[in-house]
Amino acid sequence: MSNRQRPGDGGRASMHLLKMSKSRIFQIGGIMASVFMILLIIFYWDDVGTAHFYLHTAITRIQVTRLPPMMDLNHDRLNSKTSAEERTPSSEADIIQDDLDLTYAENSKGYPKGGNALDTEQTFDAISVPSLEEKLPGFDLGIDYVKTKTDFEWVQNERKQKIRDACTDSSITFSGKNRNFEDIPNKELDHLIVDDRHGIIYCYVPKVACTNWKRIMILLSGSLLNQGTPYHDPLEIPRDLVHNSTSHFTFNKFWKRYGKFSKHLMKVKLKKYTKFLFVRDPFVRLISAFRSKFGIKNEDFYSRFAIPMLQLYANYSDPPSSVNEAFFAGIKPTFVNFIQYLLDPRTEEDMPFNEHWRQVYRLCHPCQINYDFIGKLESLDEDASYLLKLLNVEKFVQFPPSLRNRTVSSWEEDWFSKIPVAWRRKLYELYQPDFVVFGYPKPTSLLFG
């Protein structure tokens, strides 16, 4: 019997195999269910988030934003206009006189009174938007009548069509134009701010009212709290927090949260969310960047950029080590030095352009991202109002009202008067994609004058 199978052994073996098979089936089934759930979370995470967004916008929007009712814009503008001259810091009068762009209502609470470097910089930096009361050569800046919804739609369609035309025109070439979105380096996506609450993506462009648009995004997303409660007024948010990278959830941060699935999630959000940016005449933006970063005391920009400019283009072998010493001695880089710096091939060999003068097409990738709204600083007030209505948040947040100031006529010609025509043409070549993509006319008077 030792070499024979005992009675019942075959049945027990069959039962054992059956139990093992069932166990194996349950194990495999558990593994497959786990994989399915992981894939479901990865591929449909944003659908859940978007459904949450629609629920809140339809039912509990006031609880989400907790914003005050609309203010009287005309009243604020009149109050601001009354005391604008009194608030202008006398220490910067030689810079600001007859060359004011546009002062935000942020400053209507009073300009600093003692030439404090930080306060003065914040005041000056806010004055960076061209007056809507003047018209630059080539396009209309006026708001002479109340536009209808159809008018705004027509303007937006025209702006978006110009982008499509430029991006598909083989005769127009610039770096990164033909690459896919997946090929854009993660570090180049740091200007795309995401608000998952309302399904909004904003590509911010420095020197194009980005401070206040960032404030709007913080307020809508609830990314910052004031002593445990959401901010009620965009202008309550301090400037240092507005420009702190930790205050915003940007595309370049997706990698840390989503890993290798980050680009897929970006594409999902780009497809579902409303995407917008604001642009500005490229040469005027350069003037504004120079004035705010080198026309007043800014220790960081002095050490990083002004000192090299003074050494390379202004014959200062040993410029002052601090911005206070330099300003006391009357040593500053000129606008000519700044243009030399931009045109010097060595500049970008060392590092990419700083965001304040980097081309918009390099910041916002208009050939890879199909923007739903393109605003312009030259029509800021009406564009901002229309955009907030499109986003369905106009009852709960308003773009900070602005105070218009008189600017000198033909100020571009004044700023570029000492720039050789050959340099102007090279500068235009450097920024030509922004002119063409965003529909700004070629500055013929500067290039052939």
Description:
- The chain is of the alpha/beta class and about 450 residues long.
- It folds into two domains: about 10-60; about 75-285 and about 355-449, no CATH class.
- Helix content is about 50%, strand content about 5%.
- The protein contains 21 helices and eight strands.
- The chain has helices at about 10-60, 60-65, 75-80, 85, 95, 115-125, 150-170, 210-220, 240, 255-260, 260-270, 280-295, 300-315, 325-330, 335-345, 345-350, 360-365, 380-390, 410-415, 420-435, 445-449, and strands at about 100-105, 190-195, 200-205, 225, 230, 275-280, 375, 400-405.
- The strands form three sheets. A four-stranded mixed beta sheet has the order 2-3-6-7, sandwiched between helices. It has a two-stranded antiparallel sheet with strand order 1-8.
- A hairpin with a 4-residue loop joins strand 2 (about 190-195) and strand 3 (about 200-205).
- It starts with 8 loop residues before the first helix and ends with a helix.
- The relative contact order is 0.14.
- The model is unreliable at about 45-145 and about 405-410 (pLDDT under 50).
Describe the secondary structure blueprint for this structure:
Layout lengths: L8 H51 L1 H5 L7 H10 L1 H4 L5 H4 L5 E3 L12 H10 L22 H20 L23 E4 L4 E4 L6 H12 L3 E2 L2 E2 L8 H4 L11 H5 L3 H11 L1 E6 L2 H13 L4 H15 L9 H6 L6 H9 L1 H6 L9 H5 L8 E4 L3 H11 L11 E3 L6 H5 L5 H17 L6 H5 L1
Parallel strand pairs: 3-6, 6-7
Antiparallel strand pairs: 1-8, 2-3, 4-5
Helix pairs in contact: 1-11, 15-20
